């Protein structure tokens, strides 16, 4: 029990590292939450502070989920009755929760996409590649990051089932996790859903071309 508690707390703290807020203050002297969408995530950092800082934020946010899933989950304090995959899931999910509700910024963080991606890399890299491809296809088709993120997250349970049919079985616990992650990502994007329905959601720019 102590092991699980330590893994949860440490993973949550790893996920809570407020990357975009720290980078905003260091490199631009701003609080990212006062600009753009007001979200302390990678997409807003990309939009407000440029692609170099935005990409750095995204990479670190992904690394938080990967670090918790692969390394923090290995901590052992006394006997542990849970299988390693459960500890990995607990660690990764705790990091995602930390990213969304960070203790270092009044429990207001990002939307969990990057950190969830890092968790998936640690749990099932092949599934991550396919999810990422779907994300890119939707992004380049619609130029909506929010829609791309929700579509990619929602596709994960189906990708797991398809991979299983193709002879690449997944651990059953991952299917349950994938459903929770999809619902969580949709929940964190509820304001984006409203803007999408209203037709005033921000689009990304490719090649410097001005977009709506």
What brief labels describe this structure?
2 domains
The separation of the N and C termini measures 51 Å
What sequence of helices (H) and strands (E) makes up the elements? HHHHHHHHHH
Task: Count all strands and give the number.
Answer: 0
Q: Helix fraction?
A: 55-70%
Rg (C-alpha, Å)? 17 Å
What is the count of structural domains? 2
- Kindly estimate the percentage of residues that lie in beta strands according to DSSP: under 5%
Give the integer mean of the pLDDT values. 93
Helix count equals 10
Shape: globular
> How many strands, which pairing sense, and closed or not: the largest β-sheet?
none
Structural class: mainly alpha
**Low-pLDDT residue intervals, each spanning 5 or more residues:** 208-212
Give a structural overview.
With 212 residues, this protein is mainly α. It contains ten helices and no strands. Helix 1 packs parallel to helix 5, helix 2 runs parallel beside helix 3 and helix 3 packs antiparallel against helix 4. The protein is globular, with a radius of gyration of 17 Å. The chain starts with a helix and ends in a 14-residue tail after the last helix. The relative contact order is 0.12.
